[in-house]
Amino acid sequence: MANPTYPSRATTYPASKRRRLSDDDHHSLLPGLPDHIAQLCISLIPQSALYSVCRSWRRLIYSASIPPFRSLYTLSLPKATTGCGGESRDNQMPRLSSFDPISSKWITIDSPPLPPFLHRLSLRHPSFISRNLPVQSVSVSGNLVLLAGTSGDLIPALPHPLVFNPLSNAWSYGPPLSTPRRWCAVGASRGTVVVASGIGSHYTQTVARSVEKWVLRKIESSHRKRIDPDGVWEEMRSLRDSKLCREAIDAVGWRGKLCMVNVKGDCAKQGFVYDVDSDEWVAMAEGMLGGWKGPATSMDEETIYVVDESRGVLKRYNHDRDDWSEIMEDKRLKGAEYIAAGGGKVCVACEKDVGILVVDVMATPPRLWVVETPAGHEILALHILPRMCSPEFQLPETV
Q1: Across the strands, what pairs with 323?
Q2: Region (Disordered): which ranges (predicted)?
C-alpha cells in the first residue's frame, strides 16, 4: 500500500534514514524467508510485542492471516449539553467505537447507511422524563447485531436488524422481523438470535407474549463473509404471560440456554430460562435468581458473571452448587449499568463517569484497570468482538 507521505525518489537521505524508509515500504516479514514460513515463526510471539517492532509485523496482526485478538466495542451517544447551541441527542444513530488493546486507541466506525425502512433512533421523549429510551443489541458469532430501539414517534425504529462484521468492517441488514418491537428481551446463543415479548407500534398481548428466533448464516460475497439477508425469523412457542415487556431485557446466553430476569437492579424479580433448541421455558434456579442483582453476562456462554450494583461486587455463578462466588469488590463497580465478557476479561460501565472497568478474572488475584470512554460520549452498550481488520494493515493477496 503506497504511503502518500513518502518523498520523491530524487530526494536523498542519510543511509540510516534510507534503511528505515526501505524497511517501512518492504512487505517481507523476515528477510530471507518466505512469508508463510516467517508467519509460523512470528506466531509464537505475543501479538502485543509484534506491534512495536516494524510496520510489516504490525500489518500482520491486523490482517486476516492470523486469528484476530479480541477488542472492546461501545455503542454511545454524545453526552447531553446544557447550552442552547448544543446538538440534540434525539434522532441520532448511536456511534460504534472499537478500543484496540494493543495500540490503546479508540477507533470510530462509520455508521451504516440509512435505508428507507429505518427510523431514526431517539433516546429521550417528553413522556419519559427520567429515563433514556433503550437501544438493544447482542454479540453473536463475532458480529454485532442492533435489534431494537425507539423512534421519536414512539414506534419501533428497527424493522430489520443491523449487523456489523468487524473483520470485513462492513454493515449489512438481517431479515425483517415479523413484528418490529421495542422494550423487549433480546439475546443470542450459539449463532441464534432470540427476540421475546416487547411492544410494537402499540401494546398488544400477542406481541407481548411472542417469541421469534433467527439463525445467522454466513455466505461468501466478493471474497467477504456477510450475513445472509434471505434468512427468516421463526416464530416460537409463546410466553405464558407478558411480564417481559416492561423493560429492555438482556438475555444471557449460557450452555444453549438464555437466562433473563423481568426487571433490572437490586430488587425482587422473576427469572426465566429459555432452551433455544427445545423451545421450552422454565423458571430460573433459586440460587441463580437470588444473586442476580445487577447487569449480567457470560464468558463464551460457559460462565455467568454479574455485578451486584448496590455493593459493587463482581460475582461468578457456580452451576454445580447453584450459588455465586465473589471475585472482586470495588466501590467503582457500584451503579454498574452495562457489562460484557470475553478473552478472560469482564468489562463494566457504570452510571458514574469513572471510565470502563476491566477485570482480568483469569489472574490470581484478579486485576482491575480503567479504560477511558470515548471522549464526550455516554455509553449505551458494551461488547467484546474480534478486532477490526483495518485496510491500512491489509496484507497483499499473495501472503
Answers
A1: 318
A2: 1-25
On whether the CB atoms of residues 182 and 169 are closer than 8 A, the answer is no
Which residue pairs, CB below 8 angstroms and at least 24 apart, start in 348-352? 348/295, 348/307, 348/314, 348/382, 349/74, 349/373, 349/379, 349/382
In order, the DSSP letters of 289-332 are HHT--S-EEEETTTEEEEEETTTTEEEEEETTTTEEEEEEE-GG
Q: Say whether 281 sits in a helix, a strand or coil.
A: strand
Q: Which residues of 22-46 are buried (b: 16+ CB within 10 A; e: fewer)?
A: eeeeeeebeeeeebeebbeebeeee
Number of Cβ within 10 Å of residue 399's Cβ equals: 18
pLDDT category at 53 given cuts 50, 70, 90 is confident
pLDDT tops 60 at residue 37: yes
Query: Of 32, 38, 37, whose CA–CA distance to 56 is shortest?
Result: 38
pTM value is: 0.83
How many Cβ atoms are within 10 Å of 284's Cβ, its own excluded? 17
- What is the reported pLDDT for 19? 42
CA torsion sign for 176, 71, 61, 45 is negative
